Amino acid sequence: MKKIVLLGTGNVAHHLALRFQEVGVPIAQIYGRTLHKATVLAQRIGSDATDNLKELVQDADLYILAVSDNAIEPLLQEIMIQNVSDVSLPPQSSFAPFWVEQDRNFGTWVHTSGTIPSTIFEKYTSNYGIFYPLQTFTIGKEPDWTTLPLCIDANTAAKRRSLEQLGQLLSPVVHHITDTQRATLHVAAVFVNNFTNHLFHIGQTIVENDGITFDLLKPLIQETVAKIQLHSPETMQTGPAKRGDTITIEKHQIFLKHYPLYHKLYELMTKSIMKKYK
Amino acid sequence: MKKIVLLGTGNVAHHLALRFQEVGVPIAQIYGRTLHKATVLAQRIGSDATDNLKELVQDADLYILAVSDNAIEPLLQEIMIQNVSDVSLPPQSSFAPFWVEQDRNFGTWVHTSGTIPSTIFEKYTSNYGIFYPLQTFTIGKEPDWTTLPLCIDANTAAKRRSLEQLGQLLSPVVHHITDTQRATLHVAAVFVNNFTNHLFHIGQTIVENDGITFDLLKPLIQETVAKIQLHSPETMQTGPAKRGDTITIEKHQIFLKHYPLYHKLYELMTKSIMKKYK
Fold this sequence. Notes:
- Two copies of one chain form a homodimer.
- With 278 residues, chain A is α/β, with parallel strands linked by helices.
- The first copy, chain A, contains ten helices and eight strands.
- Chain A has helices at residues 11-22, 35-45, 69-84, 157-170, 179-208, 218-230, 233-236, 240-243, 246-255, 260-277, and strands at 4-7, 27-31, 48-50, 62-65, 108-111, 128-133, 150-154, 174-176.
- Chain A has an eight-stranded mixed β-sheet with strand order 3-2-1-4-5-6-7-8, covered by helices on one side.
- In chain A, helix 1 (11-22) runs parallel beside helix 2.
- The first copy, chain A, starts with a strand and ends with a helix.
- At the A-B interface, helix 5, helix 6, helix 7, helix 8 and helix 9 of A face helix 5, helix 6, helix 7, helix 8 and helix 9 of B.
């Protein structure tokens, strides 16, 4: 991979751009809907910025769409429209976007989404793939790239190898993950990330309503997670539901009568744990 | 606190015993139902062991019941029975356990449970309290005592101060927590520890059924927890439910049709998140 164009200025684009720069892989150009955002990010990594799709670098080896799920298809459509009407393009491309020209080594298109199938690219290009970092990104908080799993796929084995090699420059953990497996991973990620965070919020709400700081629960949360680094969560399960301690469960359910939705969640989680360990 | 007797040989007793030894506070005696277990633990910290309640050290300043919730009341009853019939006790104690003798500086009794009220001691002694380490313990894995919250209570302010001072030798995080607050903390702990671990198990099941290693999800889990050390879980919520992304939610629900209970959990968690962030 020689010339890379990054489309997007959000969390994923931001951290990818910084990481590419960190490992010495230059990003030729950053596209953003808002020029200011693209410029700020481009300046941080010594790259060019644009908000004009007609100005996209046309001979890049890789185009990374790091935009929100719903923006991928409209962006691809817009790129096609912009470029077929671009007088600066060679005549043979007048009815197709520049990257499907058959007479040059055209680029590969990938997106970074956990949910959108790679086949979204099919009607736009015959060179496409996936470059999905399985992590939750926050601007201002550097992710740990030494453990961050990169999920790679492409529509040919050669492209896949090429993307894997690029991925290995960013992280030692690069996996070939199919569209189906990526869909599976995304559902699982909702459980272990989104739902887990919501449980933390519920814990916080419950204790703070009784004048207790949430800080008291943080070491317990840390330890819960530390344990599964070495042991399977299946063997690490504890608590009243695991023990079948119906007296404690009843006490907790009485306590939760003021929180109807949390009461239902408690009931269903308890049921699920009991079913598993009965 | 000069002389401490520890009753119990499970996870909590084990880690308390090691910590007391580590900070130079001697445990005079360890009682266990199984002499072997008590002896093994006692030998690690240079203490005495017994499985005979008649042999309990009678002039200890503090008795710590680190036994399972259901064992507390039966153990107290047994100690009373054993000791009122003990000919070695002075005559004035013949109808009461030795520690309620009125003519000496009798000891304080505490337990380490998150759920049992301190008032369980009322009919046995007039000196009682709570010494509850808010953490999940595993034998063979040292907890981080520099952050471990110790929840202390006692039936007099003086006893409470005394227990707080003792607690501060073990951990810098010592809080006065009432019975009511401890009950609240325990419900919250079930959400953030037991239920969270079950979500990890669900994530593991889902990905392994599709031939994907659970290791791929571990960095995401680490980051989910790392974020709430600095920010409130309320502001850290992400995912399709938070965004109101019904298309993704529907896809996930179709995927989960083979997991009826997890499907219900997904639905309820999604509902709870949507209600919160609508």
